[in-house]
Write a structure and sequence with these properties.
Protein name: SGNH/GDSL hydrolase family protein
Keywords: Hydrolase
Oligomer: single chain
Helix content: 10-25%
Shape: globular
CATH architecture of the largest domain: 3-Layer(aba) Sandwich
Largest sheet: 7 strands, antiparallel
InterPro entries: GDSL, GDSL_Rv0518-like, SGNH_hydro_sf
Structural class: alpha+beta
GO molecular function, one term: hydrolase activity
Length: about 425
């Protein structure tokens, strides 16, 4: 993994602008969970003599690109027989003229050790801001998808044989997950900064329209396009601040997913609702009830670690969840005691002054006549996740000046973010 929050500028030729490698898109790696957990993994037992084509929408662009693959949770070496990147056209098709082979140390195939990431060599490919790229991986051996990202909100296409260079992909099946693809980086101006959103399913975009890039970080990336600010989504559906299951707890993955990103300027912390709500449900039937003081202690750890690295850290209030998942096997997700914990956590986030700024997603999305519930216009229907309109209003409410610590202020559609300068 990358270990520095600041990126090293690349040598510039006379008359050229200094540049750096900057991550423009991420999907946080997760381990597969066992069959005794309530949710299916939605991946096959293995992939064998198959190509997996995955699309991603970048935030910032650049003239050169490279890809980060991950075998973080694999117990055996991961063999990639071939890999290519191209501009996406639509569905599983690519723009043929943009197709580029990816190499690793000059070789077209690579073996990634267990627990390791692998960064490709740079390739010349002009990728505009907010463009869609496709990464195709050929897996020649029986390969369990041990490192994956469960809630892609993007269709992954799987086809027989080595189709990495096929303009028209012949898909045998599709997945709703990502496998092995962790990040895309571009060569960007040296002044480029990153905003990393550390969160759960509401950051991962659960219940947003699939293949339409309507997560709140996607909408934020559109607002910041052309300003040399990358927006990286480090959301994991089902993630918790303090405990593992659908991915490592936030304290454990903060370095990997946030502080290690080159040029990171701001971390947005929007996580904790699953810590509060999972106990007593099919998700975590034997877990004890969450306490506000435990979550606050966790947030304080993230704040201290961010400040040690010179990273601005913004706290987001937890959104309403009355009635959440009530007509599903996860009934019991909401309760009056759990709501009191959410309110106590939100009061601390708003009033403590310990975050550098506060993003009040609760105020933006709640129903003024029933504050424990989502405003119907922003509710996806499950009373836990926003729909597309809810995700957009969350992103549109952000004061970009307070987010980045810049001057002058940037106009917002709602006063959702208040700065606490130290």
């Amino acid at each position: 993994m990358l270990l520095a929050a600041t990126a090293t500028p690349l040598p510039a030729r006379a008359g050229e602008e200094a540049t750096q490698w900057t991550t423009t898109w991420t999907a946080s790696p997760q381990p597969l969970w066992a069959g005794d957990f309530v949710l299916p993994t939605n991946v096959p037992y293995h992939l064998w003599n198959q190509t997996v084509r995955q699309s991603a929408r970048v935030s910032i662009g650049g003239p050169r690109v490279r890809v980060l693959l991950s075998n973080e949770y694999g117990s055996k070496p991961l063999r990639i027989g071939a890999a290519r990147i191209a501009r996406s056209q639509r569905d599983d098709r690519i723009v043929a003229a943009s197709d580029r082979a990816l190499t690793f140390g000059g070789k077209s195939s690579v073996v990634i050790p267990p627990g390791a990431p692998m960064l490709s060599d740079p390739v010349e490919l002009d990728v505009p801001a907010l463009a869609d790229v496709s990464v195709s991986l050929y897996l020649p051996e029986p390969t369990p998808p041990a490192t994956f990202h469960w809630d892609a909100r993007q269709t992954t296409h799987v086809g027989a044989g080595d189709q990495t260079g096929a303009a028209a992909f012949k898909a045998e099946s599709t997945l709703s997950t990502r496998v092995f693809l962790s990040a895309v980086q571009v060569q960007a101006p040296a002044a480029t900064r990153s905003v990393v959103a550390l969160g759960d399913s509401i950051t991962d975009g659960n219940m947003s329209t699939v293949d339409q890039n309507r997560r709140w970080p996607d909408f934020l990336a559109r607002r910041l396009a052309g300003q040399d600010v990358a927006v990286l989504n480090a959301g994991i559906s089902g993630a918790r601040l303090l405990q593992d299951k659908m991915g490592s707890n936030a304290l454990a993955r903060f370095d990997r997913d946030v502080l290690a990103q080159p040029g990171v300027a701001t971390a947005v912390v929007f996580i904790g609702i699953n810590d509060i709500a999972w106990n007593g449900t099919a998700f975590a039937p034997t877990d004890p009830a969450a306490r506000a003081e435990d979550l606050i202690a966790g947030y304080r750890q993230l704040i201290a670690r961010a400040h040690t690295r010179g990273v601005r850290i913004v706290g987001a209030t937890l959104t309403p969840f009355e009635g959440a998942l009530q007509d599903t096997p996860m009934r019991g997700y909401y309760g009056a005691d759990k709501e009191r914990v959410r309110q106590a956590v939100n009061t601390w986030i708003r009033d403590s002054g310990e975050f550098d700024a506060v993003l009040d997603f609760d105020a933006v999305t709640r129903d003024p006549s029933h504050p424990a519930r989502f405003l119907p216009a922003y509710d996806s229907g499950d009373h836990l996740h926003p729909g597309d309109a809810g995700y957009q209003v969350m992103a549109d409410s952000i004061d970009l000046r307070a987010l980045l610590g810049d001057e002058p202020a940037v106009a917002t559609t709602a006063p959702a973010l208040v700065s606490h300068e130290h």
